[in-house]
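Researcher: Please translate sequence to structure tokens.
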Amino acid sequence: MLRIAPAVGLFAAARLTGLLLMSAWAWHIGRRPRAILGRAWDADWYMLIAEHGYGRVLTWPGAVQNDLAFFPLYPGLVRGLSYAVPDRITSGSVGLLVSWSAALVAAAGIYAVGERLHGRRTATVLVLLWGLLPHSVVLTMAYTEPLLTAFAAWSLYALLTRRWLWAAVLAVLAGLSRPNGIAVAAAVLCVVAYELVRGGRGDPRLWAAAALAPTGWCGYVLWVGFRTGDPLGGYFAVQRGWTSTFDFGAGAARVVRDIALRPVALPLTMALLIVLVSVVLFALLVLARPPAALLVYTGVLVLITIGGSGFFESKPRFLLPAFPLLLPVAVALTKARPRAAIAVIAALAGLSFGYGTYLLTLSPMAL
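Model: Translation complete:
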């Protein structure tokens, strides 16, 4: 564990710096940082579920926002931990504690994956890059991306080290965390299927892992379906109420056309740039021929992000758990001259801190 500490320390320092800069600006303009971090946008939905359970529905022109769209593990953890802390500590503060803890666990898992594949230096750079993405400010909010990434990173590590049941259990938890948590189960199923084909049919752990991995995601989707009276389609109807569907990129293409033809808010332009860069990074990852687990996991996340319609400005956030996209950059920076690597990291830090502050305090669009 000691070898992980420097990387996790760098990650924590990066996010703490961004948090302090954002907080200073928020106080300057008369806003409360804790309210921004713990109750803004989707965080408020999660906190209300933690406080009151499911059942909130808001109706807008062209949209019906049902809280059943939000997966249960994160608000469940917040609710459970709230019973163990003094009453004066709000659910938003508890949510931040869960998210910050999950972000540190995720950083450790990312390091473990990077070290196994490319050694300690590359793993450390990989963790630091993840903490300096333009949207990494989300990792300090009461959102679910840190939780999903924590389960995903350690599940991938378990696959790399052939711990099939651990990988499957973590895939279950990932599937209960976010809709795109299905990417972890997909990675487990593909790797297990390959092992079975190779001759592992006599290993009961492989069969158990294959049966277990998708149960978290599928279980919640079915539960929502039965609750809404449509077992197989109810969850997807709820998502359509949020204008969120998988349309093979048709909705995203319309937004891209609008960005190209008329002035739009900065978050939309940045979202487009980040998605395009992510596609390039995925191509580089494929060329690097990583283990199948990482390739399947990342590919499913990229596919869901590009192929889904809905809130285009949120797509960079959906890609935060896709940390293997950063592997080609981490390898290149490790091999680069120290001065060049430091310059790149400093530029990323400036972008991350500045843009993160803008997103939380000035942006007119939800994350």
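Researcher: Any highlights?
Model: The chain has a mean pLDDT of 96.
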